[in-house]
Specification:
Blueprint lengths: L6 E5 L4 H13 L2 E6 L2 H8 L7 E3 L5 H7 L5 E4 L13 H19 L3 E5 L17 H15 L6 E7 L1 E3 L6 E6 L7 E3 H10 L9 E10 L15
Parallel strand pairs: 1-2, 1-4, 2-3, 4-5, 5-6, 6-10, 7-9
Antiparallel strand pairs: 8-10
Helix pairs in contact: 1-6, 4-5
């Protein structure tokens, strides 16, 4: 992989998927900043040297999000609601409104790429998960706003819809990328993180949406061909 040369903001960096994304950005030596709600949690996860790259706030707060985006060239958004927790903001506030606001502000402040971690099944209104605050439908609305703002050669997006997320070691399975929201399965958070970081430089990922699951067990020797070419 050719490392990305700009500065990346990771929104939701202290979540389990966000933390894996940070690992891969560090692995490739990419310049990044962390947009988090808790500085203490971020320092606990990433070490005291992370203090200088923290941007503390919420994607629900317009001015906090705008400040976090200052000087940012690309965004990887790994935020997500927790419908199982009645004390947490609902999916409409995070997966729809928060993502929509972050995408609009990212475009406004000069970011040129936006990678969004969404969910497999986002287009399936009858999916069982939609019983919980219509979470998948809210994610789809967030996706649509990202597409609207970042959908040219100069301002591009990648939307990744992973299957069930596993806290298992990455690079142990072949990966299956699909379009059309017709597959099902699961995937390692580490593999998802690798794909998110690759999307910053991979031309086949630009302005496309992928469902992503793991295939057969087979140790990966290279992740240089993560995204399939568009069909003609």
């Amino acid at each position: 992989m050719q490392p990305y040369k700009g500065r990346v903001l990771v929104a939701g960096a202290t979540g389990r998927t966000g933390a894996e994304i940070v690992k891969r950005l560090r692995h490739y030596g990419i310049d990044f900043r962390l947009f988090v709600r808790s500085a203490q949690k971020a320092i606990t996860l990433f070490g005291a040297d992370a203090a200088g790259i923290l941007r503390v706030g919420s994607i629900q707060d317009k001015e906090e999000a705008r400040a976090a985006l200052k000087g940012i060239d690309a965004v990887i958004c790994a935020v997500g609601s927790n419908p199982a927790d009645p004390e947490s903001p609902p999916p409409s506030a995070i997966d729809r409104d928060g993502v929509q606001q972050l995408a609009a502000l990212a475009k406004e402040t000069g970011a040129r790429q936006f990678t969004l971690i969404s969910s497999l099944g986002a287009t399936r209104e009858d999916h069982p998960l939609n019983k919980y605050g219509r979470v998948l439908s809210m994610k789809l609305e967030g996706e649509n706003t990202v597409r609207a703002h970042f959908n040219t050669p100069e301002y591009s997006h990648t939307i990744l819809r992973p299957g069930g997320l596993l806290d298992t070691p990455p690079f142990q399975h072949q990966l299956v990328f699909a379009t059309g929201d017709t597959i099902s399965g699961s995937v390692s958070r580490g593999d998802l993180a690798e794909a998110a970081v690759h999307s910053l430089t991979e031309s086949n990922a630009k302005n496309r949406t992928f469902e992503l699951i793991q295939g057969e067990e087979k140790r990966q020797l290279s992740s240089s061909e993560y995204f399939p070419k568009p069909s003609v």
